[in-house]
Design goal:
168 residues, alpha+beta, 5-stranded mixed sheet, two-stranded antiparallel ribbon, 5 helices, 7 strands, globular
Length: 168
């Protein structure tokens, strides 16, 4: 029970008149992601990876889109709550590895800011290197390659900070 791994995935359509937010960073672009919250697919994938590793359900169970309290909310707020939930249950985040799949815009220059925002929301020192963000394209294939949306994948490793048997 010392370590657990979780995987997360999220995807959102690109839409007019929305800000593009990825990893908590507003990225200049002609479209943004459509969703109940700010639709930050990267942060949503990370939340699901963390919740999955801790066996706490998924983002839709914890932060349902049927709840008006989450309308337009920053996904970093939800991430911070998730981090607190894990800590209160005896888990420490060892590391997070993630990847954004988007044909456009080019994201490499925003990656360091994304890593800092995610680290800050989770209370993980950025210099620890516990949060990794990468970006890739699908070279014109699929819905991301066609520019219809953006997807993200994440993997999280968490560590038990309580004695065995005390994990909630």
């Amino acid at each position: 029970m010392g370590f657990r791994i979780g995987n997360g995935y999220d995807a959102h359509r690109l839409a007019e008149n929305r800000a593009l937010v990825l990893g908590g960073v507003v990225i200049p672009f002609e479209k943004g992601l459509l969703g109940h919250s700010d639709a930050d697919a990267l942060v949503h994938a990370i939340i699901d990876a963390l919740l999955g590793a801790a066996h706490m359900g998924d983002i839709g169970q914890i932060f349902p889109d049927s709840d008006a309290a989450y309308l337009g909310v920053s996904s970093l707020v939800l991430l911070a709550r998730t981090g607190r939930m894990l800590a209160e249950s005896g888990w420490r985040i060892a590391n997070i590895d993630s990847i954004i799949v988007a044909e456009r815009p080019k994201l490499a220059s925003y990656v360091p800011d994304m890593e800092r925002c995610i680290s800050a929301a989770l209370g993980v020192p950025p210099e620890a290197g516990a949060v990794s963000v990468k970006a890739t394209t699908e070279e014109g294939m699929g819905f991301t390659g066609a520019g219809l949306g953006i997807a993200a994948y994440a993997c999280a490793l968490i560590e038990n900070t309580l004695s065995e048997g005390n994990i909630q």
